[in-house]
Write a structure and sequence with these properties.
2 domains, single chain, alpha+beta, 629 residues, 13-stranded mixed sheet, Rossmann fold, Jelly Rolls, 34 strands, 9-stranded antiparallel sheet
Length: 629
């Protein structure tokens, strides 16, 4: 079905809903159950306490553990009791690998079951809030985890296709069974489904959407990644630690060790920690242009969230996938200065209200104004949000060049600088920029005459020589100036949030599932600088991520690559800093530094920045979109 056909069918839902609500006769004992809408929102008219709770197992098309049988996917369902007497409702689906370990969400929720194996506690608030408003909530154990068959494959094909099978079952195209082995049909649903989740869960939503599966109408990935390679690699360097994919698969699976040992050995061999190269293993786990999932095949609308200071799921996981979506895909994004966070904890009231309107519009066909609002919410600082039409905001590219005297400006310079590739933290790399440091080079602009906003993906180009065949080339863009900022850059700073005491209860509750969660607020830090964005590259992958090309010592090379995207305001009086360095100890536990001497030719070295405003050494009228609290 084409996008236009999809929107046409949605219009039918809108009309039917409007007639059911506005044109229905007065309620009576014989009136059919119906969703109630008021003020452009579905209302909580269905009993959460009395909702139907059940579970089934959907047959997937894969045999991930090689036991000769197709994996069955465990699906836990809660839906209004009225769906047992004719009401058909859409579905909000949360597929997760985390229900065993470490638990779901910021408070690490776990499932609870009754004597019949049905859930008495569904983790997170989605069921508490949306079931009373006329939705079914479906909680899916990813293949290889909790009560599903098979083995987790760390973002591989079976992870994605298991979730797709559930969408197919909800739309009558796949088979499911009850505990007696009898087939079960989803006669209670319209088939219209939205997937939501954070991190791995968000990636599953992106992966399933990229199959183009019919019936998946919208996805809400929060800090979701679009490339397994980008999770464990950064341009040929190993991030985090060696053995990542097999560790991840083992962590979320509590089955006996021997069950999936062979699969984990395959993960270890395929991921190729020895070279850090992109290969067929990683291509399977690419949801941008891979063989299983492609951004261009997405038919669902997208409401996503990205933390620009997220060191776990780095911001290019969002930006590259976002740019690859078809132009006619309806979309919305929140761009934050937090780390790896769910905005339920960061901006709770606004988040729940916006999510409610989004699902009502996309799954119920409610004619509210969520799509007429600006597409993008951007956080520029503590309690400071703006809205704009798209992301990134329109900018122009400004190229700055380092100079022999330590300054950074538009005009090229002559001379060279050198440093050693050693493993350092970003604080050590960026701190005291005027101090000579054998392990980095630092260059600063003059103080800014007016604010300047960076929005998009910077790039850096280095003309250099090495005295060894390779080095880890590190680059930092730094905001120098005393300020109070979101502490999202440092995981020890709570990813940018802190608990402030008390709880909010969201939706209806039962004795086992109260839907109550801790309150949090921005966690800030006052400091003289902050690393705004960064880049790292294994120099021998400068030509290709799929193969290594060692450099000839003493030979000059021009190497250009992208930094991580960012949306950030440099305030008046602050200075932009460019730091050239080696191995970034904050984003890799697997690299120790090569000890290579890197000699940089300043005349051929530059950083290109997408800026809103003029060059940093000129005055500018800095304008932006409407600000909101």
């Amino acid at each position: 079905m084409s996008i236009s056909q999809r929107r046409g069918s949605l219009a039918t839902v809108v009309l039917a809903t409007a007639l059911a609500v506005a044109g229905a006769p007065a309620a009576s004992a014989t009136a059919e159950p119906a969703v109630e809408i008021s003020g452009g929102l579905t209302q909580p008219v269905f009993s959460y306490q009395d909702a139907i709770r059940e579970h089934i197992r959907v047959q997937s098309p894969v045999d991930s553990d090689g036991d000769g049988k197709k994996d069955l996917v465990r699906v836990d369902i809660i839906r209004p009791k009225e769906t047992g007497s004719g009401l058909k409702v859409p579905v909000i689906m949360h597929e997760s690998p985390y229900y065993d370990e470490p638990g779901v969400g910021f408070e690490l929720d776990h499932k609870k079951y009754d004597a019949d194996g049905n859930l008495t506690k569904f983790p997170l608030f989605y069921d508490n809030y949306f079931v009373p408003r006329g939705y079914a909530f479906v909680s899916v154990d990813m293949i290889g985890t909790r009560l599903s068959d098979g083995c987790p494959t760390s973002y591989g094909a079976s992870d994605v296709l298991g979730g797709k099978a559930v969408i197919d079952w909800l739309n009558g195209r796949a088979t499911a069974y009850d505990d007696n082995g009898d087939p079960v049909k989803a006669t209670w649903t319209t088939g219209r489904t939205g997937m939501i989740g954070q991190s791995y869960e968000g990636a599953l939503a992106m992966g399933v959407a990229g199959t183009g599966v019919a019936g998946l109408e919208t996805i809400v990935p929060v800090a979701g990644f679009s490339s397994g390679y980008g999770m464990w690699r950064a341009n040929g360097t190993l991030t985090w630690f060696k053995g990542g994919p097999e560790w991840q698969a083992d962590r979320v699976d509590l089955d006996p060790e021997e069950k999936c040992a062979a699969v984990r050995r395959q993960l270890a061999a395929g991921s190729d920690d020895e070279t850090g190269n992109y290969n067929a293993f990683w291509r399977e786990r690419d949801y941008r242009t891979g063989p299983i999932s492609k951004a261009r095949n997405v038919r669902a609308s997208v409401f996503t969230v990205v933390g620009m200071q997220d060191r776990n799921v780095r911001a290019d996981q969002f930006s590259t996938w976002w740019a690859g979506l078809p132009r006619n895909v309806q979309r919305k994004v929140w761009v934050t200065q937090y780390g790896h966070l769910d905005p339920f904890y960061a901006r709770r009231d606004v988040w729940v209200d916006t999510l409610h309107q989004w699902f009502d519009h996309e799954l119920m066909g409610v004619p509210n104004d969520v799509m007429r609002r600006p597409r993008v919410d951007v956080q520029l600082g503590p309690d400071r949000w703006i809205t704009q039409a798209d992301w990134p905001t329109p900018t122009r590219t400004v190229t700055l060049r380092p100079r022999q005297d330590g300054s950074l400006g538009r005009k090229p310079s002559t001379g060279t600088g050198s440093y050693l590739d050693t493993a350092q933290t970003e604080v050590a790399m960026a701190g005291d920029p005027a101090t000579t440091n054998a392990n980095r080079l630092a260059y600063l602009t003059p103080p800014l005459k007016s604010p300047i906003r960076l929005s998009g993906t910077p790039s850096v180009s280095l003309r250099l020589k090495l005295d060894k065949p390779t080095a880890n080339l590190g680059v930092l863009l730094v905001d120098y100036g005393q300020d109070t900022r979101i502490h999202g850059v440092d995981p020890a700073g709570g990813q940018g949030l802190k608990f402030i005491g008390g709880e909010d209860c969201v939706g209806e509750s039962t004795a086992d599932d109260d839907g109550c969660y801790f309150r949090a607020a921005d966690n800030t830090v006052t400091a003289g600088f902050q690393v705004v964005t960064r880049a790292i590259l294994d120099a021998q992958n400068h030509k290709s991520l799929s193969r290594q090309t060692p450099l000839t010592p003493g030979k000059p090379y021009q190497i250009t690559w992208s930094m991580l995207p960012q949306d950030y305001e440099f305030k008046a009086g602050h200075r932009l800093g460019l730091v050239l360095t080696g191995t970034n100890d904050d984003i890799t536990d697997a690299e120790s530094g090569t000890g290579t001497k890197v000699t940089v030719d300043l005349a051929g070295t530059s950083v290109s920045l997408p800026l809103k405003g003029e060059e940093p050494d000129r005055g500018t009228s800095f304008t932006d979109a409407k600000e909101h609290p």
